[in-house]
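Hi R.,

Here's the chain you asked about this morning:
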Amino acid sequence: MARMGGRRHLKTLAAPKFWPVRAKVGVFTVKPSPGPHPIERSIPLLIIVRDILGYAKTAREARKLIAEGHFKIDGRVRRNYKYPVGLMDVLEVVETGEYYRVLPYPVKFFTLHPISKEEAAFKLGRVEDKSTVKGGHIQLHLHDGRNVLIRVSDPSNPVEAKPYETLGTVKISIPDQQLLDYAKLEVGSLVIVSGGRNVGRVGRVVAIQRGFKRSRSIVTIEDVRGEKFQTSLDYVFVIARPNEEPWISLPEGAWK
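And here is the predicted structure, written out as tokens:
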């Protein structure tokens, strides 16, 4: 991939391949602002409005619609046309009442999956790391840059924070970010693959082979058809506990 960082502008030819922009249409395209998702794993809001949803024919029209506050990301109006929209983000079109969740999808890498208003009230976040903050409370660091605080009554024995492990998934309300549920990554967990050649596939974890680093750890997954495949631990995103149905709706055929 061509260089994308360190400059204000981004050439169309260097844009991620899953962006729906053609290299010969123009020399430059929109470069996402620094935000919750990296460039290679996000789509600028302008491209979503113009090229995916089709609410505008030109970048100027799309910028005007975004500046007027017609679109919400995770329950908050976003007026920055460069805002990076990424994995598990919830997009709302205010006037039409349409709701979408950004999900991994085979070949396309990301897709906007239509969801109900009720489902749009929450999102899922993968726990990338956790730390102890002032007062002995535990702070979870999620994949989209959010921080969720787990308050503990006894800092010397924080049993309230023990269930929350890295690579598990928290279910939080949006936009107020209240913790609703948690699912640990373990054998039997229902997961969706967020990258690699198996991107978008859904299945139950059969085995986890830990390596020296997360990127060298291998997870074996069995899909709804009984086919087994393997992927990196980096690409596994838990969407339900063992023996549970998915917490989120999925594209047709992905799971049952």
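One quick note: The two ends are 36 Å apart (CA to CA).

Cheers,
M.
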